[in-house]
Give the backbone structure.
Amino acid sequence: MIDIKYEQDQNRAAAYDGDKLIGTCVYSSMKTFWIIRHTATNTDYGGQGIAGKLLDCVMNAAKEAGVKVKPFCSYAAYMFTKNPEYAAMEDKSVITVYSMETCPDCTYVEVEAEDNPESFRFIDIGEHVKNLKEFLHLRDADPAFDAAKAKGSIGIPCFVSEDGFVTLKPEDAGLRSRPVEEQPVQGAACSIDGSGC
């Protein structure tokens, strides 16, 4: 018997066959909306509707939490076109991303966002002083930057939802961080002292 569980502490719905994890529907939270990032099931359990049950579980939890949902996962996006209840819960807001074209972490998340261009607006803080001032005003005022500033980091890329929630974690915005093995040890543009991103 397949058991579907909502695991709020891990931001997911999970399917189990006994103790064996056989599928997940994973989401990120941007405070007032969630982003479904990935839905997958073990191929040995294909054709049993498990992915649909996982998605139902996350959508029911979102409904209970009173949040809308962005379907970044291709399966979820497809199901949103087929299910009017899901479509009614779709979040259409835009996440503003402060970045810089010389920052490798920024260019990585920009490529990651290409699958969902309607959900992101990129502002290059190096393109115009107006953009830099806007970013610095945010950076000086929001506590999300405290740890970055303490490390001497600039704090980009940063993600701002329309309701003002700020995060420096690409995963919170439904994207992936640049893999550690691709990060240079020295010389990147993202730290004030030039020591790296």
